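Feature request disguised as a bug report, sorry. It would help if multi-protein outputs had a clear separator. Right now it looks like this:
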Amino acid sequence: MRRIRIEYTTTDAGEQIAGGRQVANTDSVKNSVVELITVGIFGAFVGCLLTLFLVEKFSATSDHATLLAGFGGAVLGSCLSAVVSFILAKQASGETLSRDKEARRAEQKAYVLRLTVKASVVLSDVVAIQKTIDQSLSEANDRKLTGQPLWQRVLPIVGSYQTFDIDPSELSPLIAAKDNDLMQASVTLFMQHRNLVEAVKLYGEKRDKVKAIVMTHFNEAEGVITSGLTQDQMSALLPVGVELESIIKQIRAMLIDLKQIGERVTFGVGPAMRKYLGDDTIPVFGPPKEEAKSPAT
């Protein structure tokens, strides 16, 4: 067996231990430096962040103050502008409403005038037809023909046969005033007047048929013609005479009602609209100042 001699010295061991301690101290210093550098970098980073934060806050505060001042000025200017605009708009709106009100009032007055004039013309036509019939009956009575049927005493009525249509707009003032009685009376007046005109025309047409039936005449004295009829002519004349008598009686009855309705509308619309619109310039139609005469029979 081969023996190997190994020698250990204290110095070497101490040097080894010292060298180990130096290495350990160096590592510790390095670690401390690294820690210091790390802390420094971290501190610098935090400082930068704080600096940036403060700068940002200061800048934000400055911008906020500037923005607040600008916003306040804008709000104040907007408020003043809004107040001025509101005053001008209110004034313009008031003027517009006033003009619209005057325009509506003028329009309603025009409708009232048109309705009143139409009613007046219808009333005049009714009165004219009534006078024509009364005159025929009066002349027949003067000729001692009172006992004869009406159709033999009332001559055909000559007229314009003009009728009128009522426009809904002409009734709008009465509707606005809630005067239902005058509104219904106006509608009835024009509708019944149309029926009256048709009846008068029919009476004239039927009356002309008498001339085609009665063709033999003997004499004429003071507007009275004496005629002769055969049995066939009397048979043909009988139904025509019945129709004529019925028509003329209906016409006379219609005239009484229409005259009352016509007077109510013609003389009543003006005062009613003056009261509703508060305008005394609206024309008012009144009845003629003459003595009333009872119709002939």
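(second protein starts here, but nothing in the output says so)
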Amino acid sequence: MNAQEKLSYERLISRTEYYKEKALDLEKKLLFAEEQIEKLENDLNTNGNIKTLELKEKELAQLKTDLEDLQYKLRLSQADELEKRIKGYEDLLGKIQIELNEKDQQIDLYQQRVKSMEKRMSINRMLEPSFEGSMQTAGDNTAAGAVKEDFRCTGYFDYSVIFTEEKNGFIRGSFTLENTGVQPLSNPHICFRFLPAEAAAMKGKILSMISNPSAEEIGQSQWMYMDNDWAAEAKDRGELWVCPLKETVLLQGARISLNDFQIPFKKQIDNHITVEAFVYFHKENYKIRAANHIAVNF
């Protein structure tokens, strides 16, 4: 081997060593880079886990919020359902109480009807009501020079019926007397007889001396109730007695009226009301029955 070939061989070896060192150095750098990459990947994975954990925590917080909201709504729903049930029970109890009250009222009405029927059966009512102290005989009290045929009188009702709610209402009318005979008639005493007796009530321009009317009321009135113990007993039988407030004489052809009276009624105990009228002239010992009567059926 000559010197030139030996030099080339040494250079080749030197270059080979150089490249080996470079290769080794590159391998070290590659290993270091791989370690760095692995570390970066680990760091990246760690950061991703933190973000994932944060997301999971947010989701968990939202789930807790949703759960609390659902529990609150459930409590409200249960409270509403309980309140509705309580309200339903209260309404049911109210309806039952109303029905019980209606039944009690019906029982009271039936008891009143029974008492009314018993009262009617216990009272021995005559065909015509009797005047206080009873009527005297014709010969004892007939006007001098007159006979029964000389006395003649007609009495009649003129009325209308006004209904309000539930078939309650009142009767408005007048009662007129006309002397159709030849002899005068004085001081008529009128008996209004009611059936049933409990319906005996009349309003109008009729005074009651028990109430101590004023002088003005007395001056404007023509009729008054007969207020005494006998009249009170008569009212229990369903009779209201009315007489003139002042001395009154009906001459032949004359008329006198009890105007604008009102009789209230209620459909409770009976299904009808009847009002009859009887007129007594005590001085003349003469009596009549009205030509008509009031009758209202419900």
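Even a blank line would do. Unrelated, but nice: The mean pLDDT is 79.
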